[in-house]
Amino acid sequence: MSDSKQSESRISVAKTYKLYIGGAFPRSESGRVYPVTDPQGKFLANAAHASRKDVRDAVVAARKAFPGWSGATAYNRGQVLYRVAEMLEGRREQFVSEVAASEGLAPSQAESLVDAAIDRWVWYAGWTDKIASVLGAANPVAGPYFSFTVPEPTGVVGVLAPQASSLLGLVSVLAPVLAGGSTAVVVSSAERPLPAITLSEVLATSDLPGGVANVLTGRAAELGPWLASHGDVNALDPTGATPEDRITLAREAAGTVKRVLTVPDAEPDWTPTPDLSRLRRYLEAKTVWHPLGV
Amino acid sequence: MGIFEYAPAPESRDIANLKDHYRPFIGGEFVDGSGEPLKTVNPATEEILAEVGTASVSDVDTAVRAARKAYDTVWSKMPGSERAKYLFRIARLIQERSRELAVLESLDNGKPIKESRDSDVPTAAAHFFYHAGWADKLEYAGYGPNPKPLGVAGQVIPWNFPLLMLAWKIAPALATGNTVVLKPAETTPLTALVFAEICQQAELPPGVVNILPGAGDIGAAIVEHGDVDKIAFTGSTEVGKLIQRTVAGTRKKLTLELGGKAANVVFDDAPLDQAVEGIVNGIFFNQGHVCCAGSRLLVQESVAEEVMEKLRYRVSTLRMGDPLDKNTDIGAINSAEQLAKIRGLVESGDAEGAQRWTSPCPVPDRGFFFAPTVFSDVHQSMRIAREEIFGPVLSVLTFRTPDEAVAKANNTPYGLSAGIWTEKGSRILWMANKLRAGVVWANTFNRFDPAAPFGGYQESGFGREGGRTGLEAYLSV
Hints:
The complex is a heterodimer of chains A (about 290) and B (about 475). Chain A has about 290 residues and is an alpha/beta fold. Helices cover about 45% and strands about 15% of the residues of chain A. Chain A has a 5-stranded parallel sheet, with helices on both faces. In chain A, helix 10 links the parallel strand 8 and strand 9. Chain B has about 475 residues and is α/β, with parallel strands linked by helices. Chain B has a 7-stranded mixed sheet, with helices on both faces. In chain B, strand 7 (about 180-185), helix 6 (about 190-200) and strand 8 form a beta-alpha-beta unit. Chain B is globular and about 65 Å long. Chain B starts with 20 loop residues before the first strand and ends in a 6-residue tail after the last helix. Classes of the chains: A alpha/beta (about 290), B alpha/beta (about 475). Strand 10 (about 285-290) of chain A pairs parallel with strand 17 of chain B, so a sheet runs across the interface.
């Protein structure tokens, strides 16, 4: 690559972009792909077009990974997530070029978004072992009991990732799920999926157990309803759906009393440092009581 | 009467100051509701206690407008330290009128006076006292420097703990600066309307609290109202799902506290006599009309026989009858409808092959009563192991290993509460960690406190009530 003459004469090896389910990179079981272009319409790649069955496979993988990930120590989860940030940093140039191509940005703009995404990931990695002390409590109950409350992960979370912000937005919605100890099935931006697929490759090489995060490329409008109605999905982030579709998804989600995030109509600016609201949405408070006595 | 039997010790019903007629409370005044009046019944005698005026859909709109006006002009502008003083006043007034409220609650609900007197009413007062202190300290609650209220809260509560559920709803809403429109359950509206009097005695600004008796259609009208910012519901999972569906796509913040099918897990090293007390408390407290009732007993196989023998003996000593008698352990089932539901599920237990044992206690010939019942040989697939019975019916299953206990305990779409009985501390903490439930009681059961967050996982709902965690439900965060 450093020898420009050689690279001019050389045909590059193109990557086949696939799904990320249970730690593996399968094609869609449907065999479908769709062309991904940059904002000017230039062909970038064919992405796997995930199906309902891929959603179900990903939910099975996420459920299977849940006991291990939620049962890992907070310190361990923090280390694994920090390792993800290290891998992100190592692929910085690749992300910059993919974000620039996907979002039609100048390299300097893409660089600042990629840097923010890496920093965002580090921010959430550092939360894993602080959540319980910030959100938990020793409850001063009026009786001879020791009572304490700890936050616990909600379970399997379906995430419809932002459509516009292909990496920073994706990181901003995925990292809080994982930091709290839940597992995720993510549907990436449909038109801008390449950074999501590369992020999957980062996750696969970062000590994150297979199935903890699953990434599907495809249409939120097609896959969202299956996540919303799935009996083994505990929470849903409808960010990547249209405002009209979010209403339908929220109604579907009521059938299993899913936690559904309230999100703004328009995709927000992801650059400011977030507050705790996304972390809190994927946590359940568990209160434990025991009598005091001799 | 034998030498060790109890003489009747009834509390006087006069203490309840029962009136012939009660009316909805809107904008600080008792008003004639334009709904069809309902007659509330004493479930222990089937006698009519009082006629209660109900709200119509247009009254809901009037109440929401009163709540909005109070929010905009008074309550949201008042310093937290001043709001706090109203809540402290309410707490004290509940304490002052506690005997009246307890007797009224037992008359209207059917629960034993010792429960309304020692549990429901004092805990209701405690909720106001606890939340009063939060009103001027919200910036320390962990939701940022200046957390804002939501506005008008619509609240719909069940009949099993009428005054206590009201306190769980109204105290945090008011402390955080919201105003409320609350619908008590159709069969138990009376203590909520005495609470409205307490609001008047506390000189709470008009419209801050509005109480609308009525049936499900009035609850639905509150949930659907366009100018309500927050919905809080406690009740069945079935209705909770309908509410979640209705609220979907609106900006209303929703919290749900729904049904449960709690496992109460007894290990072979548990102090069995204590465990039996806990099992009895877990399922027969409040006639089993408790969303977090320990309705599935999981007992380790090696002690199952011994536990069952102790349990049957202990249950056979429970006294069922007049809720106003201070010696009564088990009162009346709240309504004929609920009694029919319990009977239906018990019949399904027989039909599916579980072994039914019923306490030989005498059953009063009037009123809605159901004798304490224990099913053994229960399998996980049976309806009595899966569905919430909401009555004095215990389903007993067995297990061999801790892993099996966890798997069976978690084998439910619910996730409200769970119990663990063992002398081994490390096992308690391991189990508490593995059980997917919002409240875990170890070597105790059915403990509640305003400082301890309460609420469910999965289909038992979302959001918490109590503690710092519970404030989130009423803040724009």
